[in-house]
User: Fold these one by one.
Assistant:
Number 1:
Amino acid sequence: MTGPLWYACGEDTIPAGEDWLAALERERLAQIRFTKRRTEFLLRRAVGKRAVAAVLSLGDDPATCGRIGMLNHPSGAPYVVLDGAVLDLEVSLTDRAGHAVALIRPAGSQARGPVGIDLELVEERTIGFVEDFLTAGEAAWVRARGQVAVDANLLWSAKEAALKVLKVGLRADTRSVEVRVQDSVGPDGWAALEVVQGESGATFPGWWRRDGHFVLTVVTTHPDGPPQALPGNGNLAAAEPIHSWLAEPVVRPAGPN
Ligand SMILES: CC(C)(COP(=O)(O)OP(=O)(O)OC[C@H]1O[C@@H](n2cnc3c(N)ncnc32)[C@H](O)[C@@H]1OP(=O)(O)O)[C@@H](O)C(=O)NCCC(=O)NCCS
């Protein structure tokens, strides 16, 4: 089974100018006043377009990227257009601390259905976080293992990836889905996980990996092979968290200085 395709890059690779954005993306960008949200929006567009360009064997020059649009349904779930026509592929986008990852399932793949990806930093989480956002079973598992920073963020990430598959995001209670994690890591760095939706009992398979400061999770609709890196995939394992927006939190209005 060939798994979905993933691609990572950092905010230092966001192209200059706006030629690489589709018209609807430029309109959305113009409405964003806060630097953090603006940078994240651009970073997710950059990673998504490069992934789509790699899947379709297109170049990733600004003109080609401008033909690709990473747009959103009213739910917030992303979809892709090329020259204005919706592409038959599943996509999911995520970013954290200046780095972003795109996940793509091209048309014609054996395993169908939406995909979800989520990137988190391995950072301290309080016991309050564990008790408020995890199920009782997950919280007990985290406490028993005694590595809260890794495990709490891993479970949180897998929940977000699953809620992206379900297209609801954090409108849903994070305790409505329960994550089970395996520890045996394959040669490619991925280990298996599954997410069970409490109410329906539906099970969603997935994968996770620890790359340096980050934990990355992928959830799919049907069983699938581990994610495959696209050509040009960035080295997340060596990536340092970036918080560049702190230098200028609000975007300066355009015009004379
Ligand atoms: C999905 C969600 C949990 C991700 O938040 P996050 O972890 O802070 O951010 P990430 O970087 O990991 O993911 C952001 C991406 O998730 C995707 N996303 C947003 N809502 C989604 C949904 N309902 N289903 C699937 N994917 C979704 C988008 O691609 C978004 O990036 P983009 O807006 O630039 O296209 C959060 O955005 C959410 O709960 N959204 C739904 C509620 C909401 O506020 N919707 C606004 C309607 S536009």
Number 2:
Amino acid sequence: MKKRIVIFEPSGLRISVSQESSFLEAVRSVGLHLPSDCGGGGTCGKCSIVLRPAPEPTSIDEKYLSSNHLAQGFRLACQHRVKFDTRAVIPEPRRKAKILIDGLSRLESWEPDSGYEGQFGIAIDLGTTTIVAYLLALDSGIQVSQLASLNPQVIFGEDVISRITHAVREEHGSSDLKNKVVEEIDSLIESLVDVSKIILERISRISIVGNTAMHHLLLGADVKSLGVSPYEPTIRESIVTSSSELGLNSKHNIEIYLPPNIAGFVGGDTVGFILSQRLDLTEQIIVGIDIGTNGEIVLSNRGDLSCCSAAAGPAFEGATIRYGMRGQDGAIEHVAIEDLEKPPEITVIGDVTPRGICGSAIVDTVSEMRRMGIIDKSGRLQKISSRISEDGDFGLSYLLVEVPSKSLKISFNQKDVRQVQLAKAAINSGVSLLLQEADIRVKEIDSVMLAGAFGSYIRPESALGIGLLPPVDKELIGQVGNAAGEGAKALLLSSQARKIASDLVSKIKYIELASHDDFQSIFLKSTSFP
Ligand code: FES
């Protein structure tokens, strides 16, 4: 097979690939990052790069790229094979993402294990998008420093399913994914030790929480069963292993602990969430929600725990939304509409020119559009303002902001609203079913705890406005930040926390939504707006 050269700009990296490879594969092979929410399926439109020479645009290019961009040589990297030696410009370097580090916890309720005087440990929250690492003194539980980075596995796909697919389909897929994340953890350890001015040999424990897929990919475990119904984990129980077994660099042996997984889509990060908020001990009725591509929902009925995973899809992360993007510089993060004819008030991360709209603003926008009557209860846009116009296949579209310097009009269209309806219905129906199974009415709920980045940045009133959350008083909604990370700290410090984590798995009632008799009808009801 004939080989072709691709030179990437501005990095100058070069690679020789077969003519059968796509540009997206070439990007991944050199270790660069290009958003590819659909994993190369041609359905997200996020993988655009500039190609020189530029091949003829395909109909998929034309669907997602403006004629202006097409003329400049922009093409979707997943849609073109490397037929010629090509210069490929990745136009937007990876921007600094807003990463949620802090969380509220009850760390004081865990007694650090004895025998670790003068030693340190690292608690790691291994997320699909970000990795957060905290360095703690093991004898006192005092946090010394913390660092965060993006999960480098993102080059194999933004979401869990793309990565599972890569691990299962590619010959070295599983080791590609494992090596990437192990390298990143090594670099985080090195940086933590460096900034804290301690010697590596004083690190003796590491705890790692993550969703079940991140857990399995880190361990190099088989993930096939996570990709097919009934989505069973290969490893359910907690694991104690060592840095050398995991493939970390350290010359001395560090104990590595990973808590158990509850189900295929409810992993050790949810165990961490439960422990950090002591949902196992509470005398109240609490609904805990960590909203991501999969929303993990936990109900504590005065300490009796049940949980489920709701397939919200990536809309709240900006994927599948025409101008959606992650929460990074240039993302609109909040929207308020006061006058139908005037531009809405917006705030933008980094105080720069807006480039798109991230999850918190997506929820604001839909909530505000509903409040102002731009969308009706069923989610249909109404042409009641000159800011609303037809936008081809996307249907009616509401203009959020115009950026003349970039010939960009950021808008929110009918298809975007439908995506949000599906996402919020998934979460809402998960909560409804857990309540139904426990025979609890909404008015009995004492508190709704939102964890994770999305849950921490959304406005509770907007989440209520679109019916994402059960209709409780706004005052009952609490935002607890990176609760999984706080759980990782408890699991780092305390054997008692580890014991409770192991016991939880047999105590917690897991409800598989898709196979529940009432799920379809509850889901359909949940798609409409309050
Ligand atoms: S990765 Fe190319 S369109 Fe989604």
